[in-house]
Amino acid sequence: MGFAIIAPPTQTKKWEIEFNKQAPNEDLLIGYETENPEEIECVLVWGHPKGSLEKFKNLKLIFSMGAGVDHILNDETIPKNIPISRIVDPQMAFSMTNYILMAVLNYQRCWYDFQDSQRKGHWAQFEFDEKILSIGILGIGHLGMDAADAFHRLGFKVSGYSNSPKKTIFPSFHGNQFEDFLADINVLVCTVPLTPKTKGLLNFELFCKLNYPTYLVNVSRGGVHIERDIVRAIDEGKLTGAFLDVFEKEPLPKDSPLWQNPKIKITPHIASLTYAKESIRQALENFRRVKQGNKLLNEVNRQNMY
Ligand code: GLV
Description:
9 helices, 5-stranded parallel sheet, alpha/beta, Rossmann fold, 7-stranded parallel sheet
């Protein structure tokens, strides 16, 4: 039996070291070039080149090293009958929640204004008030729910929206209640997976339905937003600004107008990183389950795309 890790080099090294620690007796291929593709039964992937899994005819499990699986499902050459599972890790939720807290609290406590004042050597004691926020978490899956719970516990007004009804400790909306969800918020935090339904969802038309003005945080996928529309909505005062970790094209092109927009804060898709130890543990556990014919942990529903 054989495993393969197919991922960008910076990630691969950590995952390889951890794999060899946890499964020292298993064969591990790095990348997809091999003369014996029939030996590979399990692939651990992040951003594999399209078509690169096709030659593994004895594949039994595709394990996503990322929480989102659009990088796998966008490859139409992936065999239909192979189960896909994805990492679901409390530590990833911890780090994603901290990122979202940082983005929202910097905004709420006017951090950028104080930074500006400091640069000018100006004591701006009573110039900027705490903002009164009503935070909407669009997508209350594992990660979105964790962030929403954290805001709720801190005493913020928070609500959530998901496709199907969820049990929550804060008000939540689902299905055709999307506009009700949007009606009462002034911070929109997007944590939805990229699917045909969410592609381009954060567009100008949606921004026009928001309370004026609203702050946007996107930590899901760049394909969910339209960057041109974010800039226009900021220019027209519909959005106060945006805190973005994901982009239509990554790395964000050097000539993107987002870089220089003072109301847009940018991080390079780092909101929540994959932790090697837990990911490898879950991949090995799931492969064991496939072999034993047991139910997989966190199996992806291909229809839903998450
Ligand atoms: C990162 O974006 C992930 O999907 O884990």
